[in-house]
Amino acid sequence: MTPNENKKCKLVEKLGISIEKKEQMAPMAARIFSYVILNGKQGATFEELVSNLCASKSTISTHLNHLQDLKKLSYYTKTGDRKKYFILNQDTMIQGINNMIEEWKEEKQLHLEVMSYKQEMNKTLNKENLFELSFHESFIGFLDGAISSITKLKENYSK
User: Fold this and answer.
1) pTM of the model
2) pLDDT in tens, 74-112
3) Cα angle at 156 between 40 and 13, to 5 degrees?
4) Contact residues for 84 (Cβ-Cβ < 8 A; gap 6+)
5) Which fold has domain 3-89?
6) Which residues contact 44 (CB under 8 A, 6 or more apart)?
7) Is 60 in contact with 32 (CB distance < 8 Å)?
8) CB 45: neighbour CB atoms within 10 A?
9) Under a CB-based contact definition with an 8 Å cutoff, are residues 66 and 29 in contact?
10) Could you tell me where the DSSP H helices lie in the chain?
């Protein structure tokens, strides 16, 4: 195994674990997804996945079909070659960014509601029992900035 292949193998595992947790994906599906990401535009064939991920044909096939159903992967073929070359679906990054934006907006809304409640309660509490609001204010400001930044990234990626 070359140093680059060894590095790729370790990165497939590391990225796979991250994706598995973040996306709540099955371990093998996450590793297939990671392998395809790291192969880039050249794609990855079914045979490569079976060989490099040391899994059965049935396991790879099941997870490949599932990833395609989720619209995370697509494939292309080459003239005169019956193999499918699996690649990252172009919309996958946009889907991920949209999910992130939605989660942040929901979290911001929750903090706004909690902060509003605490502000109302502060009107009835004596000075030593007042709720501290600076964390909510700072966190809402942070979320606004994060949402703005990721939205710009999405717009640039979509061009």
Assistant:
1) 0.76
2) 999 999 999 999 999 988 888 889 999 999 999 999 999
3) 30
4) 45, 46, 75, 76, 77
5) Arc Repressor Mutant, subunit A (1.10.10)
6) 35, 36, 85, 86, 87
7) yes
8) 16
9) yes
10) 3-23, 27-39, 46-53, 57-69, 91-122, 134-158
